[in-house]
Specification:
There is one protein chain. By secondary structure, the chain is mainly alpha-helical. It contains 17 helices and 18 strands. The strands form eight sheets. The chain has a three-stranded antiparallel beta sheet with strand order 1-2-3. A hairpin with a 5-residue loop joins β4 and β5. The C terminus is likely disordered.
Length: 588
C-alpha cells in the first residue's frame, strides 16, 4: 500500500512542480496587474499542495506525531513569509518571494527524507534568517551611505577570509568554518555578499586603468586567500563574479578575456600545486578508476541519477543515503533519484528564474553602484547553482558548494536569504526611481504652466494663445472650437456636427454643398449646370442614362445594360447590331 501511495504521490508532485515552473515564465507575458496577482496566488497554492503531499508520505514512513507538528510549523512559516513580505513591502517582487519559498519548501522535503533532525535545524535557521531578511530591504532603501563604504567592505572581506585561512578547521581537505560559542558557520558564505558590495564600489569609481587595476588587485586578494584555504568552490564563485561585474562596469571585452586567461592559468597552477585539486579532477575524469576511494561520491551520484530516470523512484523508494554528504554537496542527485529527472529540470528552471530576475532588476537600475550590486549578487547565485548541479552530473569537477536554499547548511541558507532580501530592496529602489522620474515630469509640466503654456491633468495644453480645453480641443482665438472638437464661429464657420454651413460655398446641415454655381441635391448628388446629374448621381443630357444607370442616347442599351443598337457612322440610316451584355460606364 505504501509503495502504491508513493507512486501516485510522485506523479502528483511532478505535475505540481511543472505547473509552478511554467508560471515562473508565463508571468512575464501578463500585462494586467490583476492577472499577475492571480498567477502568484496560484503558485502559492501549488507549492503548499506539493508540500502537503510530500509530508503525508514522510509521516507515513516515520510514523511519528512530531512530523505533523513540524509540518504545521513549516506551513505557518511559509504562509507568514508570503504575507509579511507582501504587507510590509507591497512593491516587492512577488515572483522572487514565491521562488524563495518554493526552494525552501523543496529543501524541507528532501532534508526531512534524508535526515529529519538536520531538517529541524535547517528550519530554525531559515526562520531566523527570514526575520533578518524582513529588515534588510528598508535598510537598502533608506541608508544610502552604505554605497560609500566600499573600502571598509574590502578590508572586512580580506580580514575575515585571512582569519579563516589561519584559524578555521579543515573539513574534507578545505578550511571552511569557524566555531564561536558553540555555533559553527562558514564565513565565506557571508563574505561573498560583502565582497560584491566592495567590488561594486571600487568599479563604480574606476574611471581609468589605474583604478581598475586597484580593484583587480583587491579582488584577486580575496580569491588567492580562498585558494590557499583550499576552498576552491568559493574561489571560483568570487572570480567569475568579479569578471562579470568588471564587464558590466567597463563594457570592455578585453578585460574579461584577460581575466579568463588568468583564471585558466590559475586553474592549471592549482592542479599541480594542490593534491586536493588533482584528486577532484581525476575523480571527475574517471570516477570509476578509484571507485572505492576518491571516485566513490561522484560514482554514487551518477548511479542515483540513472536509477531515478524521468519520473523518479518515489520518496523513500530510492537509496540516496548511499551518497556521502548527500544533504550538502549532492542533494540534487537525491532529488533526481526519488522525484525524477523532470522534477530536477523544473528545479533548475526555477533557479534560473531567480537568476533572470536578479539580472533584470540590476539592468533596470540607473544608479551605477546598485546596478553592479544586483548583477554581482545574481552572478554569485547563478554560479553557485551551476557549480553544485554541474558537479553532481559530472559536467565539471566537484567543488563542494551547496545548492542555495535547498541543500543543508545554515550559513548557506542564511546568506542566501540575505541575498534575496538585498535584491528585494534594490527592486523597490527601481520602483522609487520610476516614481522619481514621473515626479520630475509632473514638475516640468507645472513649470510650463507657470510660463503661460502649461498642461492640465489630462496632458492637454491649456492657457496661453492658443489654449485648449480639458478635452484637448482648442477654444477661443480666431478659430474657436466647440466642446466636441468641431470649429464653430469665425471664417469659415462650422455647425455643431462639424460640417461647414453658410459662407462661400455654403453647405447644408448634412455636410453636402447646396446652392451656388454648382448646386447639389439634399442627397449630396450634383444636379443642374452643363453637366447635370439626376437624383441617382448618373449623368443626363449629353450622355443620357436611364433610371437603372444604363446609358441611352448615341449608343443605346437595353434595360438590362447590354448594348443593342448603335448609330451608323456612314449615311443617315440606322444599322442595328446585337451586342452581349456590356460594361456599365463608371459613375461621375
Amino acid at each position: 500500500m505504501m509503495n502504491l501511495l508513493c507512486q501516485v504521490a510522485k506523479y502528483l508532485i511532478i505535475v505540481l512542480m511543472a505547473f509552478y515552473t511554467l508560471q515562473c515564465y508565463t508571468v512575464f507575458r501578463k500585462k494586467d496587474e490583476e492577472a499577475r496577482q492571480y498567477l502568484f496566488l496560484r503558485q502559492n497554492m501549488l507549492m503548499l499542495f506539493m508540500h502537503f503531499v510530500a509530508y503525508v508520505l514522510i509521516y507515513l514512513e516515520l510514523g511519528e506525531f512530531e512530523v505533523i507538528l513540524f509540518y504545521v510549523a513549516q506551513v505557518v512559516y511559509l504562509v507568514l513569509t508570503l504575507i509579511l513580505f507582501r504587507v510590509i513591502y507591497p512593491l516587492a517582487s512577488r515572483l522572487l518571494i514565491n521562488n524563495m519559498c518554493m526552494l525552501l519548501c523543496i529543501g524541507f522535503i528532501m532534508i526531512a527524507r534524508l535526515d529529519y533532525d538536520e531538517c529541524v535545524k535547517q528550519f530554525l535557521i531559515a526562520v531566523a534568517g527570514t526575520v533578518l531578511a524582513l529588515l534588510i530591504p528598508v535598510i537598502i532603501r533608506k541608508l544610502r551611505f552604505i554605497t560609500k563604504m566600499y573600502y571598509a567592505y574590502t578590508l572586512l572581506g580580506i580580514g575575515m577570509l585571512g582569519l579563516v585561512a589561519i584559524a578555521a578547521r579543515t573539513t574534507y581537505g578545505s578550511k571552511l568554518s569557524i566555531s564561536i560559542g558553540g555555533f559553527t558557520f562558514q564565513p565565506s558564505e557571508f563574505i561573498k555578499i560583502v565582497y560584491v558590495f566592495a567590488i561594486a564600489g571600487l568599479l563604480t569609481h574606476a574611471r581609468d586603468f589605474r583604478r581598475i587595476a586597484i580593484a583587480t588587485v583587491l579582488a584577486a586578494a580575496h580569491v588567492l586567500i580562498l585558494v590557499v584555504s583550499k576552498d576552491l568552490g568559493s574561489a571560483v564563485i568570487y572570480f567569475i563574479t568579479y569578471l562579470v561585474m568588471l564587464f558590466i562596469a567597463t563594457k570592455n571585452p578585453f578585460y574579461t578575456l584577460a581575466g579568463l586567461l588568468a583564471g585558466a592559468g590559475g586553474g592549471v597552477g592549482a592542479y599541480f600545486l594542490f593534491s586536493h585539486v588533482r584528486v577532484r579532477v581525476q575523480a571527475w575524469l574517471d570516477p570509476f578508476a578509484d571507485y572505492q576511494l576518491t571516485g566513490y561520491q561522484a560514482a554514487q551520484a551518477l548511479f542515483s541519477i540513472a536509477a531515478g530516470g524521468w519520473f523518479g523512484a518515489g520518496l523513500f523508494q530510492g537509496s540516496p543515503t548511499a551518497i556521502p554528504v548527500v544533504e550538502q554537496d549532492m542533494i540534487f542527485a537525491a532529488i533526481a533519484e526519488e522525484l525524477g529527472g523532470i522534477f530536477g529540470i523544473c528545479l533548475i528552471l526555477t533557479c534560473m528564474s531567480c537568476f533572470i530576475m536578479f539580472i533584470n532588476i540590476g539592468m533596470q537600475l540607473t544608479n551605477r553602484y546598485y546596478r553592479l550590486v544586483a548583477v554581482g549578487l545574481g552572478t554569485t547565485y547563478g554560479v553557485q547553482v551551476f557549480l553544485t548541479i554541474g558537479g553532481t552530473i559530472k559536467l565539471i569537477p566537484l567543488t563542494g558548494v551547496t545548492l542555495p536554499l535547498v541543500s543543508y547548511g545554515g550559513s548557506s541558507v542564511l546568506s542566501t536569504l540575505i541575498m534575496f532580501a538585498i535584491v528585494q530592496g534594490l527592486y523597490m529602489l527601481r520602483n522609487d526611481e520610476e516614481a522619481s522620474r514621473e515626479q520630475k515630469e509632473a514638475q516640468r509640466i507645472a513649470q510650463e504652466r507657470q510660463r503661460g503654456y502649461g498642461y492640465d491633468l489630462n496632458g492637454y495644453p491649456q492657457g496661453g494663445a492658443p489654449f485648449y480645453g480639458s478635452n484637448g480641443y482648442s477654444q477661443g482665438d480666431v478659430s474657436s472650437y466647440g466642446t466636441d472638437g468641431y470649429s464653430q464661429g469665425g471664417v469659415p464657420p462650422y455647425g455643431t456636427n462639424g460640417y461647414p454651413q453658410g459662407g462661400v460655398p455654403p453647405y447644408g446641415t448634412n455636410g453636402y454643398p447646396q446652392g451656388g454655381a454648382s448646386s447639389y441635391g439634399t442627397d449630396g448628388y450634383s444636379q443642374g449646370n452643363a453637366s447635370s446629374y439626376g437624383s441617382n448621381e448618373y449623368l443626363r443630357e449629353d450622355d443620357f442614362y436611364d433610371a437603372d444607370e444604363n446609358q441611352q442616347g448615341a449608343s443605346y442599351y437595353s434595360s438590362d445594360g447590354s448594348m443593342w443598337e448603335e448609330e451608323s457612322a456612314s449615311g443617315g440610316g440606322r444599322k442595328k447590331r446585337r451586342f452581349g451584355r456590356g460594361r456599365k460606364d463608371s459613375k461621375k
